[in-house]
């Protein structure tokens, strides 16, 4: 297999089975290119990359290859908010309109910041027609969200805010700091902690950015989409069509340059493992804390749990992070937290083991899951090795 999916990098002998699982994914689940990084107590124990970063399979995937990680981006957006809470610049129980006055429109006065983070705000979609490129236009999105009436009474249920999460949380960050999410992240997190994660990338980064390769939806998925679109004014239909996220557009310069903090973070696997590993070690002596002890607890404390209003799945969230569900686990720790992304990327922290995990592919897979089967195979091999 390694002749058709060449692998390079380092892997401690204890985790040989993880390397084998990484190789086996190429045959069993399909990979064009991917990278996997794992840290324990701040030390790299797995740092692998394999395959190619381009669809033509001419450019090898290297440790500094960046990939669009879709919703894995949300974890870094949430981290920006948590840093502001730790700095006493943002109160998760304060009304959003304290920081963003226009948000009070359409019955949203008093809606607390925490509802933006835990997907209970009732704003997963926008009803008013938007231009096709709205996702790339910050003020267009934030103005539409400020004017939007909640689709349900905030706080009474939760539903995944797939595309709106980043603009909602990101605008609060911008109002508090005067900086975009990308600028604030670079200044306070990416720079100090040396992580190769970016909200918006310059043209110079294109040479090391992987091509995202679209997946073919299954018959089950196509049937679900057809059912949703049969009611074009529903919130589920609006999520899919207003605006439309065209998968092929993620390989364009316009997408890469924009800041879409729910979906267009570009990262290496090393970066994801490094920042989640640092979070996992925040309470450990000798490690520079990313968050306070209270801040770390906010990351794994359950806020939303149960059937999701936007997806045919059980979801569980803390303030901004995805948590394990009864059927899909980010490892065995009840304190594990992180986020996965459409197409397969996954990153999480395990504070009980001081562990950070980052997996980034470019061959997109689609399915009714929260943890891609490739990532699930890697996580299973990892914890088998640790037990």
Walkthrough of the structure:
The protein has helices spanning 16-30, 73-86, 113-117, 138-147, 165-177, 181-193, 219-229, 235-241, 253-257, 269-280, 293-300, 373-386; strands spanning 7-11, 33-40, 43-51, 67-68, 197-199, 265-267, 304-307, 314-317, 337-340, 346-350, 355-361. It is built from twelve helices and eleven strands. The two termini are 28 Å apart. Strands 1-3-2-11-10-9 form a six-stranded antiparallel beta sheet, with helices on both faces. The chain has a three-stranded antiparallel beta sheet with strand order 4-6-5. A two-stranded antiparallel ribbon has the order 7-8. Helices cover 33% and strands 14% of the residues. The chain is globular and about 60 Å long. It is an alpha+beta fold. A hairpin with a 6-residue loop joins strand 7 and strand 8 (314-317).
């Amino acid at each position: 297999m390694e002749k058709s999916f060449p692998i390079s990098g380092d892997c401690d002998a204890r985790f040989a089975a993880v390397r084998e699982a990484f190789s086996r994914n190429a045959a069993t689940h399909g990979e064009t290119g991917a990278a996997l990084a794992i840290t324990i107590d701040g030390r790299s124990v797995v740092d692998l990359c394999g395959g190619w970063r381009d669809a033509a399979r001419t450019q090898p995937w290297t440790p500094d290859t960046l990939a669009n990680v879709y919703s894995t981006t949300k974890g870094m957006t949430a981290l920006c908010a948590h840093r502001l809470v730790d700095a006493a610049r943002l109160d998760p129980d304060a009304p959003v309109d304290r920081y963003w006055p226009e948000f009070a429109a359409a019955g949203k006065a008093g809606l607390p910041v925490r509802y933006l983070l835990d997907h209970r705000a009732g704003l997963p979609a926008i009803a008013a027609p938007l231009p096709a490129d709205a996702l790339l236009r910050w003020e267009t999105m934030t103005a539409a969200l400020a004017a939007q009436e909640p689709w349900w009474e905030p706080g009474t249920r939760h539903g995944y805010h797939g595309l709106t999460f980043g603009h909602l949380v990101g605008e609060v960050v911008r109002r508090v700091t005067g900086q975009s999410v990308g600028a604030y992240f670079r200044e306070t997190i990416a720079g100090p902690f040396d992580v190769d994660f970016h909200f918006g990338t310059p043209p110079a980064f294109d040479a090391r950015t992987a091509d995202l390769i679209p997946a073919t939806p299954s018959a089950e998925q196509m049937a679900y989409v057809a059912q949703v679109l049969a009611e074009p004014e529903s919130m589920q239909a609006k999520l899919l069509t207003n605006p439309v996220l065209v998968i092929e557009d993620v390989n364009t310069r316009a997408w890469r340059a924009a800041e879409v903090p729910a979906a267009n973070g570009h990262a290496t696997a090393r970066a994801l493992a490094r920042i989640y590993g640092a979070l996992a070690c925040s309470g450990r002596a000798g490690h520079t804390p990313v968050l306070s002890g209270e801040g770390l607890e906010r990351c794994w404390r359950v806020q939303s749990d149960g059937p999701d209003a936007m997806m045919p799945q059980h979801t569980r969230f803390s303030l901004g992070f995805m948590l394990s569900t009864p059927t899909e686990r980010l490892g065995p720790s009840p304190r594990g937290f992180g986020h996965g992304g459409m197409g397969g990327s996954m990153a999480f922290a395990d504070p009980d083991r001081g562990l950070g995990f980052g997996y980034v592919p470019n061959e997109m897979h689609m399915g009714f899951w929260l943890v891609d089967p490739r990532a699930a195979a890697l996580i299973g091999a990892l914890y088998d090795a640790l037990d």
